[in-house]
Amino acid sequence: MVVARELRFGTAGVPDSTPQTSTLAALKHVHDLGLDGLEVEFVRGVKIGSETAGQIRDRAAALGLQLSVHAPYYINLNSPEPGKRIQSQDHLLRSARMAALMGARSVVFHAGYYGLQSPEKTMAAVRKELRDVVSVIRSERLPVTLRVETMGKRSQFGSLDECLTLCQDVDDLAPCLDFSHIHARGEVRANAYLDFHRIFKKVEKRLGAAALKDIHIHVSGIEYGDKGEIRHLNLPDADFRYDEWVGVLKDLDLAGLVICESPDREVDAVMLKRLYRSYRRKG
Q1: Which of 68, 62, 54, 100 is nearest to 214 (CA)?
Q2: By the 8 A CB rule, do 42 and 75 touch?
Q3: CB 3.0–4.6 Å: which of 31, 124, 158, 225 could bond 63 by disulfide?
């Protein structure tokens, strides 16, 4: 299992330019592009078998790639239907078990929707469900970390403060900081150097300095409106000030994994890594 001691850059899923549409092919392709990470997308379900998972683990280790996974989109830990909450727990546990077999350290997930509930009641419901899931992960000794993602639509549970509070309340839970979502949601200023710096320092204050040395980040350009996120864009086509954002990554000396979710994700991921390296060289 590859553990980051630096900031690594990768793509969300198989890049479109990969010769074959498979995770195994994508590993070599992202490595050849000069990237050093990949997030395996289980967003439509956990459809990889244990044999393939072992092959992915071995190939990623041989190439020095850090892996994460994204759990299915179907998760809603605040569903009014008990059956859907149980299914949501099962999606998380299946993702965690497969992540462990693949050598992936992080399982990113969307927690759910407010629905007709208040933010406070939603927080209580999500917290209860996650404590149950974490208890099973501990009992099975799975070497993975669940990461609750900051969400871009205001109808979704997952503001920056909600995610940080949840991580304080639930042991062994960490955030996935999606800066495109934070920017689109509009509840926190997130589009200038000082904004980005302030967000990371808030994470440090709430979760400790170690959180900035094992950070997990999603980024892309984004189109948004009054209700938040509309769709992802390539970084050069959006208003997100990624050059200032990269400057903060360098200045705070973060370590962890940056996953690019742009439509042309491998193009933007390579661009971000090159920009980050150029800032590092300049000091």
Answers
A1: 68
A2: no
A3: 31
| Domain 7-282 CATH class label | alpha beta
Locate 7 and state its tokens: 């900031």
Q: Give the chain as a DSSP string.
A: ----SSEEEEEESS-TT-SSSSHHHHHHHHHHTT--EEEEE-TT-----HHHHHHHHHHHHHHT-EEEEE--TT--TT-SSHHHHHHHHHHHHHHHHHHHHHT--EEEE--EE-TTS-HHHHHHHHHHHHHHHHHHHHHTT---EEEEEP-SBTTEE--HHHHHHHHHHSTTEEEEEEHHHHHHH-SS--SSHHHHHHHHHHHHHHH-GGGGGSEEEEE-EEEEETTEEEEEE-GGGSS--HHHHHHHHHHTT--EEEEE-STTHHHHHHHHHHHHHHHHHH-
In angstroms, the first-to-last Cα distance of the chain is 30
pLDDT confidence band for 5 (50 / 70 / 90):
confident
Per-residue pLDDT tens for 213-229?
Answer: 999 999 999 999 999 99
**pLDDT tens digits for 239-281?**
999 999 999 999 999 999 999 999 999 999 999 999 999 999 9
The two structure tokens encoding residue 194: 């000082």
Q: Residue 138 burial (CB < 10 Å; 0-12/13-18/19+)?
A: exposed
Q: What is the pLDDT of residues 103-133, one digit of tens each?
A: 999 999 999 999 999 999 999 999 999 999 9
Judge contact between 147 and 137, C-beta under 8 A: no
> What per-residue confidence (pLDDT) applies to 1?
44
Every domain of the chain and the residues it spans:
7-282
